[in-house]
């Protein structure tokens, strides 16, 4: 592939990525994950710009694609680009006269002349042009031709025969009237001692000498004067800009002083030229014209003296004049033959004219070779190619000067630079022009001898320029451009006769196969001497251009119809032919990946399946009542059975197409299936919601008061035994007791959220849990089925080529569903555990466990209920679920027991002596969940129970030590600041404070009253009637404050 095509892709990719960074939505064709090369080649810059200018928020790249190959245009652009250090461009399109140059105004005569010049340029546009920046002298072709003839007459009119002058006049396309006027001018100036017009000074002298009387009409005079003034202004203005030399007197003023002098002199020159610009005979005054000419000469003389170039013509102008004069050796009627005065003209040019124009022999040889090649393009005379090749071999060249590759003025190259550089530049132009012809040799070169001659000229030109090693690269570009041009011609012809796109693709594939066979049989053998890989280049180019046409069609196919399949098969046959030619080449193109290019259809199908799968899931879940499909253990719901069946059938339908499905399409569908299964799991989890509403809130903190604790215990004992206090005072004391010891634990079911949690029965929860587990167990089988069937459909060549890396996409196929199922399973297990512990056993734990004294109500009664309820639930779940449930219940029970120890209300009172019994209870709980190895592992049990164990360990410390730890913790973390997560219990102020609140110790109560102002009874809203009851009792309880 040519470098320019790669550069085009890089530029388009950068621009599109920049648009994305700036917030513009860039819509890729379905199946494209990035700016692929085939997509960039198919983009039409014109269509892309049209979308950008429309201001649409989304840039749709499929609408910016074109059917034909844009890489052909890229290569053609390359071949029309100047080779190595040269710059494209001919003369300016419009007429260049004085008024256009200095003011931009256009006169009617100027407009007419511009039209004539444009027509002439259009007529010669198909011919080779010396596209050198140094030759862009700013003059029209007719002006250059008149100037060349005038210089020739001034230098050699006395030597030239009338026949030679007639031939030269015909070559320069000058009519007899114009030629006679120029002859009169040279005769006139000769009378004034001017023997040559090959310098700028002599042309300014012309303005002083020549008057309208020398011309047949005033209009012809204006035309001649415009040419002279254009030359004067162009050369001097650019000389001032690039080679101005400041005078010594201006040195102290810096560059500004020199610039001021230059601007002043240019203004004088412009003023003088403006005065000369008389376009109507009635406005002409000879005396005024003479004064203006003198003013022009005076200003020009000062400018020339201050410029390094002086009065010299720029080299670009001299070279163009030499080219025009050398064309005069050819017959104007039989353009492939020399005229009768060829030798005479060459003798005069080399003996006289070149000396005046300072044209060296090397420059002459370079221009001589060029005009012969150009004449071949005009006449197709094969002999001229051989003459051009021999002339090129006699040219001595040097590398191009770096100066010309910069931004300096091309008109002001010095003689020394141009002597060494110009021949090399001409050879580069010869190479480029040959490449332009070879860039379409399938259409323009039928004769093998012409093909061989063109290659010979190109070889000689590259060798003369010291670039012969780059000849294979040039031929690569020519082969690619010609193949693409032939492809475009075939496409155009077929498009005119075929309407169906798939038929066009099929016929175009057959045409490309014939084109390649013709290339291999006719042209490649001629190219092989200089480029052995000619057939490979042609094959790679055909592969590229056909792919650029076929791939966009393939993306737009709406269905795999019979005609579409035929087109695809023809395309694959062509690719096999082309890739076989390129098999052992390093430049072998990447396969089209036809199956991957079918991705739009396959992705569309997959997206449709995913959409339908979502609808099926909605219907399945809406009809689910969470009853078992059978009475057997571990059976899930109907919904999970139907879900697994549907996703299995969806995946199998993809592989039933019997195609080598691209991994991306498979991944797309599996991701959709994965999301559907995640949706199922999330539905189950969200349907049951959170169970935390039934977890009791923390009660307000109270401190130990012996009298209140004793009285509350007595009252509880009396109530338990059925004894009722007698008398009014007893009734009053009972009311006061109830107010002081109001139950902080709210009854279960007082809120809507609590009723919602308790409404879920264990049977429904177990069915949900089994369903999620069944879904998890099915994921492994689904993954194996997908991998096996995808691998079975892959061709052997792909397996050998891709290796193990082809299976990278398999990793994490259903990880989303697996993670969602695990989250839902753990959530359901926790929901069951919370409901069991904080719902079923709420009263047992919060009303009875460790109330007043540890020994009165131990943990064993709770563990018996847990064992019974958990065993009943585990008998109906999947075999993998009992450990999960046991862990969840253990965690919930640990949380509940810890809540009793730290937030159990005012009548949970403990002493260090209670720790032995608490540890015994904990050991019993560990043993129950370990279940002799049939339950949770010992390490896991210990990890779950660790928060509770840490609290019990702290409870055995002396009150003073706990108070000291609390003070240190407050000093470290800040009082009343919440402890960071993971803070050890021994350093947690919240835990230490609650242990003190439940410590049956006077010192602890005193510390809490003094430092924390913690009351001895429930405050505020929880005992709203306390103050009323106390006042009626006559202050009986005020002593206890």
The low-confidence parts are 67-117, 400-413, 1021-1041
Radius of gyration: 51 Å
Shape descriptor reads elongated
Biggest sheet: strand arrangement: 1-2
Task: Give me the secondary-structure category.
Answer: mainly alpha
Main beta sheet strand tally, sense and closure: 2 strands, parallel
DSSP strand tally: 2
Q: What is the distance, rounded to the nearest whole angstrom, between the alpha carbons of the first and last residues?
A: 98 Å
Mean pLDDT: 82
Give me the number of helical elements: 43
Fraction of residues in helices? 55-70%
Strand fraction: under 5%
Description:
- This protein is mostly helical and 1041 residues long.
- Among the domains are: 1-63, no CATH class; 360-399 and 415-466; 490-592; 598-692 and 766-786, no CATH class; 816-1034.
- It is built from 43 helices and 2 strands.
- It has a two-stranded parallel ribbon with strand order 1-2.
- α16 (361-379) packs parallel to α18 and α18 (415-438) packs parallel to α21 (471-497).
- The chain is elongated, with a radius of gyration of 51 Å.
């Amino acid at each position: 592939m040519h470098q320019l095509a790669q550069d085009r892709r890089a530029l388009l990719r950068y621009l599109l990525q920049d648009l994305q960074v700036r917030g513009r939505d860039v819509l890729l064709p379905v199946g494209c994950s990035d700016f692929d090369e085939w997509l960039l080649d198919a983009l039409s810059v014109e269509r892309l710009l049209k979308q950008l200018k429309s201001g649409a928020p989304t840039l749709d790249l499929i609408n910016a694609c074109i059917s034909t190959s844009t890489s052909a245009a890229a290569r053609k652009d390359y071949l029309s680009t100047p080779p190595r250090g040269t710059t494209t461009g001919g003369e300016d399109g419009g007429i260049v006269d004085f008024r256009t140059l200095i003011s931009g105004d256009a006169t009617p005569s100027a407009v007419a002349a511009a039209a004539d010049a444009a027509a002439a340029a259009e007529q010669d546009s198909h011919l080779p042009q010396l596209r050198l920046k140094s030759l862009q002298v700013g003059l029209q072709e007719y002006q250059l031709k008149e100037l060349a003839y005038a210089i020739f007459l001034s230098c050699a009119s006395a030597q030239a025969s009338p026949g030679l002058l007639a031939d030269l006049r015909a070559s320069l396309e000058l009519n007899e009237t114009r030629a006679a006027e120029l002859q009169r001018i040279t005769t006139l100036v000769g009378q004034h001692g001017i023997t040559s017009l090959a310098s700028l000074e002599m042309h300014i002298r012309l303005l002083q000498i020549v008057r309208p009387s020398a011309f047949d009409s005033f209009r012809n005079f204006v035309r001649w004067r415009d040419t002279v003034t254009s030359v004067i202004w162009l050369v001097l203005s650019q000389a001032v800009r690039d080679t101005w030399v400041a005078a010594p007197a201006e040195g102290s003023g810096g560059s500004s002083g020199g610039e001021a002098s230059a601007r002043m002199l240019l203004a004088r020159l412009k003023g003088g030229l403006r005065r000369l610009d008389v376009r109507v005979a009635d406005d002409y005054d000879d005396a005024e014209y003479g004064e203006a000419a003198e003013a022009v000469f005076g200003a020009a003389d000062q400018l020339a003296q201050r410029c390094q170039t002086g009065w010299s013509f720029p080299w670009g102008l001299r070279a163009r004049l030499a080219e025009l004069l050398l064309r005069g050796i050819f017959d104007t009627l039989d353009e492939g033959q020399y005229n009768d005065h060829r030798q005479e003209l060459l003798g005069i040019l080399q003996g006289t004219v070149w000396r005046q124009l300072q044209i060296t022999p090397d420059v002459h040889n370079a221009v001589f070779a060029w005009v012969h090649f150009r004449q071949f393009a005009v006449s197709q005379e094969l002999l001229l190619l051989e003459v051009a090749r021999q002339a090129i071999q006699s040219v001595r060249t040097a590398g191009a000067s770096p100066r010309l590759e910069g931004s300096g003025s091309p008109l002001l190259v010095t003689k020394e630079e141009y002597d060494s550089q110009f021949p090399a530049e001409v050879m580069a132009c010869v190479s480029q022009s040959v490449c332009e012809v070879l860039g379409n040799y399938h259409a323009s070169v039928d004769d093998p001898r012409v093909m061989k001659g063109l290659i010979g000229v190109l070889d000689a030109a590259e060798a003369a320029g010291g670039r012969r090693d780059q000849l294979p690269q040039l031929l690569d570009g020519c082969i690619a451009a010609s193949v693409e041009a032939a492809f475009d011609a075939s496409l155009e012809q077929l498009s005119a006769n075929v309407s169906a796109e798939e038929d066009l693709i099929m016929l175009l594939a057959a045409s490309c196969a014939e084109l390649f066979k013709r290339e291999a049989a006719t042209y490649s053998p001629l190219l092989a001497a200089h480029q052995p890989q000619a057939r490979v280049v042609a094959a790679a180019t055909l592969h590229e251009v056909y792919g650029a046409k076929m791939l966009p069609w393939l993306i737009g196919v709406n269905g795999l119809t019979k005609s579409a399949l035929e087109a695809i098969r023809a395309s694959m046959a062509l690719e096999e032919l082309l890739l076989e030619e390129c098999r052992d080449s390093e430049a072998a193109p990447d396969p089209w990946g036809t199956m991957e290019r079918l991705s739009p259809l396959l992705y569309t199908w997959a997206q449709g399946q995913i959409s339908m799968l979502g609808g099926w899931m909605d219907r399945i879940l809406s009809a689910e009542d969470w009853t078992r499909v059978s009475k057997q253990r571990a059976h899930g719901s109907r919904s999970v059975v139907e879900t697994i069946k549907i996703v299995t059938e969806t995946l199998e339908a993809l592989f039933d197409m019997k195609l080598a499905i691209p991994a991306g399409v498979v991944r797309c569908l599996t991701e959709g299936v994965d999301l559907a299964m995640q949706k199922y799991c999330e539905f189950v989890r969200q349907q049951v919601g959170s169970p935390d509403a039934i977890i009791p809130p923390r009660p307000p903190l109270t401190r130990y008061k012996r009298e209140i604790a004793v009285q509350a215990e007595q009252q509880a004992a009396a109530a338990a035994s059925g004894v009722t206090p007698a008398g009014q005072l007893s009734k009053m004391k009972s009311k006061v007791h109830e107010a002081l010891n109001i139950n902080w634990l709210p009854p279960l079911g007082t809120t809507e959220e609590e009723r919602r949690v308790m409404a879920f029965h264990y049977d429904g929860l177990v069915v949900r849990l089994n369903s999620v587990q069944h879904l998890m167990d099915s994921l492994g089988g689904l993954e194996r089925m997908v991998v096996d069937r995808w691998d079975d459909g892959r061709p052997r060549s792909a397996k050998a080529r891709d290796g193990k890396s082809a299976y990278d996409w398999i990793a994490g196929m259903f990880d989303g569903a697996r993670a969602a199922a695990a989250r839902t399973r753990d959530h359901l297990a926790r929901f069951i555990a919370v409901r069991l512990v904080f719902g079923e056993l709420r009263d047992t734990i919060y009303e009875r466990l460790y109330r007043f004294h540890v020994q009165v109500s131990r943990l064993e009664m709770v563990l018996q209920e847990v064992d019974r309820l958990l065993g009943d639930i585990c008998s109906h779940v999947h075999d993998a679920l009992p450990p999960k449930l046991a862990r969840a219940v253990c965690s919930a029970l640990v949380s509940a027991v810890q809540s009793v120890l730290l937030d159990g209300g005012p009548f949970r009172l403990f002493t260090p002596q209670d720790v032995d019994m608490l540890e015994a209870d904990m050991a019993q709980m560990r043993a129950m969940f370990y279940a002799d190895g049939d339950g949770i592992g010992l390490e896991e049990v210990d990890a779950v129970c660790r928060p509770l164990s840490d609290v019990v360990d702290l409870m055995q410390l002396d009150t003073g030590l706990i108070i000291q730890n609390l003070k240190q913790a407050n000093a470290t973390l800040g009082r009343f600041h919440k402890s960071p997560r993971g803070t050890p219990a021994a350093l947690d102020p919240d835990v230490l404070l609650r242990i003190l609140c439940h410590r049956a110790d006077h010192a602890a109560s005193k510390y809490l009253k003094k430092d924390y102002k913690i009351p001895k009874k429930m405050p505020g809203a929880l005992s709203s009637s306390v103050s009323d009851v106390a006042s009626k009792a006559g202050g009986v309880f005020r002593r206890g404050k």
